[in-house]
Amino acid sequence: xxxxxxxxxxxxxxxxxxxxxxxxxxxxxxxxxxxxGEPILIGRDNRGDVFxxxxxxxxxxxxxxxxxxxxxTVECPYHGWRFATSGKCxxxxxxxxxxxxxxxxxxxxxxxxxxxxxxxxxxxxxxxPSEDLPDVPGVPEISHRFQLHLHRTFNCNIDLAITxxxxxxxxxxxxxxxxxxxxxxxxDKEKAFSPAPLGWRMDRHIASGNARAYRxxxxxAPETEITYTLxxxxxxxxxxxxxxxxxxxxxxxxxxxxxxxxxxxxxxxxGGPVLRGLVRVFAKxxxxxxxxxxxxxRDGQAFNPKTMLVEDADTQIRWYYRLKKxxxxxxxxxxxxxxxxxxxxxxxxx
Length: 350
Ligand code: FES
Ligand SMILES: [Fe+2]
What we know:
Blueprint: E1 15-21, E2 29-35, E3 38-44, E4 50-54, E5 68-69, E6 73-75, E7 82-84, E8 89-91, E9 110-111, E10 113-116, E11 119-124, E12 146-154, H1 158-166, H2 171-174, E13 188-196, E14 199-206, H3 212-218, E15 223-229, E16 233-239, E17 244-255, E18 258-267, H4 272-301, H5 315-333, E19 344-349
Antiparallel strand pairs: 1-11, 2-3, 3-4, 4-9, 5-6, 6-7, 7-8, 10-11, 12-18, 13-14, 13-19, 14-15, 15-16, 16-17, 17-18
The structure holds FE2/S2 (inorganic) cluster and fe (ii) ion.
Residues 170, 174-175, 290 line the site of fe (ii) ion (FE2).
């Protein structure tokens, strides 16, 4: 038993983060987001392309997202400096010819952005040339079947949010329900794990007996596989052969004490809006239960109690901290990450 590390809340740079979903960013409009403590304007131009700029005017810092966007340029509401979606300044109305600076001398910072499978990702950290950027985290197989996006802001640091979501032993207490699992109904679990790029994988296995929700939803006992990767992304893929479900949960730190949790779901089961509505109700309840559980923990941990990580139920939480530390060290040493996780079987009751 050990104490969890105490570097809670430090941001990981060098990753794609979920900033929004496709349907939230409309053509000719911009929105403000805060990611990793940085103000970011996200917009969609007239051609339909998404872009991201630092949301503070290089002149005096006004939020650019409060200005006017005509589908091509963003105009600062204070003195009307205008910026192309690339960040290039194209007009400074107050300047007479020959005065400095001129528009060509000015740039608003732009961020790499990708739109894929209904999700808008922003790359945080570094000025990497776009050919050196990693791929955005992918959703396998049925990714074009975007069905649902749920979002909830957790008022805690990213470590608490992530470890709260990956914790395998809270289900029978936090998510107990008369429909799919009884309160305190815990059973033996044994799962094989292997390393995955930037994380680990719970190997493909038949969903266990008390995962009744799955059986109801997919109409049988599915095989499921779950992958966790830095900086805080969980991808679950479940299939019965006939029906497939895929869920992507992504934690995006807003600031040291606030984390956005996005849950995006894909499936290929007939059921249309009715099924979507039903799943939304249950998934929202799940997410709310997780958020409340994590906030109870946050409130307790505010007193700096001595805490522990037990075998094997808390092993994945230990892996998360180990990976995070290794990433930070690898960044400092300017070398690739050496995944510290070995293939192994974990056993617990949940
Ligand atoms: S603050 Fe933006 S133009 Fe002056
Ligand atoms: Fe949970």
